[in-house]
């Protein structure tokens, strides 16, 4: 079934398998990198107008951060764990191992307390 963009990127309900987590996360990463790059170029200018326009891109970056957290919460749900484990990403060095774990660990087979198996 076709999901809406809101359900795909801004919902913490349900589960998200590895493939969708990686692909959607990559899309969010590319969009946030573009926005950050444009903001960086604009702020290096001496123009006050460009500085103000750079600030207008800040909500895009914030939306990307929220989306990234929602995707990660749903990935934890696919592993049968609480979304609170997302907070591990704030711990330096630990975050590298957590990200790797989320990329490679197969989700629970069959339904779990967070929903049906997304591969079923």
Helix/strand layout:
Elements: H1 5-9, H2 18-43, H3 48-56, H4 58-78, H5 94-104
Helix pairs in contact: 2-3, 2-4
Task: Walk me through what this model shows.
With 120 residues, the chain is mainly alpha-helical. 60% of the residues lie in helices and 0% in strands. The protein is built from 5 helices and no strands. The longest helix is centred in the first third of the chain and has 26 residues, at 18-43. The radius of gyration is 17 Å and the shape is elongated.
Keywords:
single chain; mainly alpha; 60% helix; 120 residues
Helix content: 55-70%
Share in β-strands: under 5%
Counting H and I runs of at least 4 residues, what is the number of helices? Answer: 5
Described by the principal axes of the CA atoms, the overall outline is elongated
Judged by helices, strands and strand pairing, the structural class is: mainly alpha
Distance between the termini: 13 Å
Task: Please describe the biggest sheet, giving its number of strands, its sense, and whether it closes into a barrel.
Answer: none
Count all strands and give the number.
0
Radius of gyration: 17 Å
> What string, H for helix and E for strand, traces the elements in order?
HHHHH
At a glance:
The chain has 120 residues and is an all-alpha fold. It has five helices and no strands. The two termini are 13 Å apart.
């Amino acid at each position: 079934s076709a999901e809406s963009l809101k359900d795909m990127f801004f919902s913490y309900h349900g589960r998200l398998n590895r493939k969708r987590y990686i692909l959607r996360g990559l899309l969010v990463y590319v969009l946030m990198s573009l926005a950050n790059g444009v903001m960086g170029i604009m702020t290096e200018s001496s123009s006050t107008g460009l500085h103000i326009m750079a600030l207008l891109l800040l909500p895009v970056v914030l939306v990307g951060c929220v989306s990234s957290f929602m995707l990660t919460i749903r990935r934890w749900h696919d592993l049968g764990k609480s979304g609170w484990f997302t907070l591990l990403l704030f711990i330096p060095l630990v975050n590298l191992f957590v990200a790797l774990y989320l990329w490679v660990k197969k989700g629970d087979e069959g339904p779990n307390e967070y929903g049906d198996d997304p591969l079923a």
